[in-house]
Design brief:
- It is a single chain.
- The chain contains 12 helices and 14 strands.
- It is α/β, with parallel strands linked by helices.
- It has 3 domains: about 150 residues, Rossmann fold; about 130 residues, D-amino Acid Aminotransferase, Chain A, domain 1 (2-Layer Sandwich); about 50 residues.
- The chain has a 6-stranded antiparallel beta sheet with strand order 13-12-9-10-11-14. Strands 3-2-1-4-5 form a 5-stranded parallel beta sheet, with helices on both faces. The protein has a 3-stranded antiparallel beta sheet with strand order 7-6-8.
- Helix 2 crosses helix 11 and helix 4 packs antiparallel against helix 6.
- The longest helix is centred in the N-terminal third of the chain and has 17 residues.
- The N and C termini lie far apart (about 55 Å).
Length: about 350
């Protein structure tokens, strides 16, 4: 009888491990990303529920997840509260998506993983290096990579054409390009913590990279940012640039990243590389790289299940692809809405004029 009980307990434990749901935080309007995560879940051949969290209860992404969590602000929530939520919902895979929360999840990754929750996040020191553009520039210069030099004082920079941006956060927001010294000083007064860089004329590229849990580069895809609006690629095209992809992969390994990483690089008129910055997360137009074969979310879910990725090769698309991002409409039968969303609508907690 004791042996049967032990076998039943083992069977229940295995079944529990197989119930693997996913929490995606700061879902906002990241609909293409949520679709790619769902596609990856389907490829696993098991039934997953995707939970979406956001501090804005009106986040449009709530209509594209199985259950929406109106999360507190990241500054007002503890790791233990997230662990409790995940355990109650049988979630063991977590994907952070916003710059402002990456350091929180990196610092708490150990506690989350001890609780059986795998997080697609790089180590704390790697995240810190990326979030501070001055440190990022200094570290890559020390390592000998062609990063754009970055200064906190414009007088330290000898250039007739300057770029001015925020030291922390998305560099494309409130950016000033090709400014004179005088104009750069004026623009800097509009920013919280301005930094100064030489303006480099050339073509701008993003390079999506996946680093596995062993620190190896699983794959990389370069894409040209053809049309950029508010810092995000509205039109982007994959390009075969092995030297650029190889360089970004080496930087990713040196900085000990994990998961999906994006490098922003300018190739000047002489063909030289200039690394601008790095975002240690999935990007707004990174779904094009998935279409080109960089199956980041699928690989992450495989690694959550302790799968060896060597059995899942990176097969790059044989032809180049172009992605055009555009607004779209979705019509939903109210009977098909997740219960918590339907309840919120009926209670008037969501403005129906934005649906």
């Amino acid at each position: 009888m004791g042996v049967l009980t032990e076998l039943n307990e083992r069977e229940e434990l295995v079944q529990h491990r197989q119930v693997s749901n996913i929490l995606v935080t700061s879902i906002s309007q990241k609909i293409p990303m949520l679709r790619e995560i769902r596609n990856a879940a389907h490829k696993m051949g098991r039934s997953f529920k995707i939970f979406g969290g956001d501090s804005n209860r009106e986040a449009l992404g709530r209509f594209f997840v199985d259950e929406f969590w109106h999360m507190p602000l990241i500054s007002q929530i503890s790791a233990s509260a997230i662990i409790e939520y995940c355990q109650n919902k049988q979630i063991n895979a977590l994907i952070p998506t916003r710059d402002g929360e990456l350091l929180f999840f990196a610092e708490n990754k150990g506690d989350l993983e001890k609780a059986g929750i795998h997080v697609m996040i790089s180590p704390r020191d790697s995240i810190r290096t990326c979030l501070d553009k001055v440190i990022f520039s200094e570290v890559l210069q020390e390592l000998g990579y062609p990063v754009i030099p970055t200064y906190i004082r414009h007088g330290d920079l000898k250039s007739d054409c300057l770029a001015v941006k925020e030291r922390f956060g998305a560099g494309s927001k409130s950016i000033g390009l090709c400014l004179t010294s005088e104009a750069a000083q004026y623009h800097a007064k509009l920013l919280k913590e301005p930094i100064f860089q030489p303006f480099i004329n050339g073509r701008e590229y993003s390079v999506d990279v996946y680093v596995d849990k062993l620190g190896k580069i699983k794959g990389a895809v370069a894409r040209e940012r053809v049309v950029v609006v508010n810092g995000e690629s509205q039109v982007t095209t994959t390009v075969l640039l092995p030297a650029l992809e190889d360089m970004c992969g080496k930087v990713a390994q040196k900085l000990k990243f994990y998961g999906h990483i994006i490098f922003q690089v300018i190739i000047d008129n002489d063909g030289s590389f200039h690394i601008i910055e790095c975002n240690p997360r999935f990007g707004g137009a990174s779904s094009l790289s998935i279409a080109a074969g960089l199956d980041s979310f699928y690989w992450f879910l495989l690694e959550c299940g302790e799968e060896n990725l060597s059995s899942y090769p990176f097969i790059r698309s044989a032809e180049e692809l172009t992605q055009v991002r555009y607004p779209d409409d979705m019509i939903i039968r109210c009977s098909n809405l997740p219960p918590n969303i339907l309840d919120m609508l009926h209670m008037g907690k969501i403005r129906t004029d934005i649906v």
